[in-house]
Amino acid sequence: MTTLQLKNAPDVPVEAEAICPDRFAGRSPAEIGSLPVAYGNQRACLGDFFTIGDDGRQEVVVAGDLRGITMIGAGMSVGLITVHGDAGMHLGAGMRGGRIVVHGNAADWAGAEMRGGQIFIHGHAGHGVGAGYRGSPKGMNRGLIVVDGNTGDETGSAMRRGLIVVGGGTGDYPGAFMIAGTVLVFGRLGGRPGAGSKRGTILAGRAGELLPSYRYACCYAPVFVSLMLRYLAGEGVDVPAAWRDARFRRYCGDLTALGKGEILIREGA
Question: Does 13 reside within a domain?
């Protein structure tokens, strides 16, 4: 296990793509400490900011006030990163495999454009969870993101595959421009959910007024929801009892796009 203890919170963000099990494999603590990071417009080393220990296992533990440490686990494909504290922007962005667990909050763009793996955030997350970056046609493309608390705007925007689970509520435009995939919100959806969505599924406990380009279809109990909830319970997700055997009001849209997406709102919420 490689341990990284933050010495002092940086004055400007540190781009630390180096914090990744793939890059730590086979390296000594001294070699890990020499890995390059970007500190503002300057180059620095990981050891300038962290005290590093290692026992050889493919696991990374990062601790401290990490709000100024960005890109933790970006591009990782294997192993486990455990974060004790609030994480900075771009946590797990573009990751292809492995698992990240955050005991705290995460800033914007957590899991942006990820292609596999799992992210568990035991707190809140910012804007763009699992979304595509500005100008990118595709967001999350496989994998699982679970946020116990709330998320910001554009959760799952432009996502292509995968599953995002939000224990609380979302900001505006959840699932906007979705191509496929699933966004599950146990709490309340923000405004204009599924705007421009071609396909994909958005499920929510509560929702405000939907866009007029969504049409009511029916009320039913889809089989895939019970299977998905069973899978999430096996992953340790706290599934509300009210969701078991629940019925959902189904709305189809966005009719301004391909119109094969759906929003499912739990009946009786």
Answer: no
In a domain, 58, yes or no: no
Q: Give me the half-sphere count of Cα atoms (radius 13 Å) on the Cβ side of residue 192.
A: 9
Give the C-alpha separation, 119 to 128, whole Å: 14
- Based on the structure, what is the number of domains in the chain? 1
pLDDT at 71: 98
The first and second tokens of residue 151, run together, are 């998320």
* 37, 52 Cβ separation under 8 angstroms: no
Tally of CB atoms within 10 A around 128:
29
Q: What is the pTM of this model?
A: 0.96
| CA angle centred on 248, ends 116 and 257, rounded to 5° | 60
Task: Express each pLDDT in 20-32 by its tens digit.
Answer: 999 998 889 999 9
- Establish if 40 belongs to a structural domain: no
Domain range for residue 240?
108-266
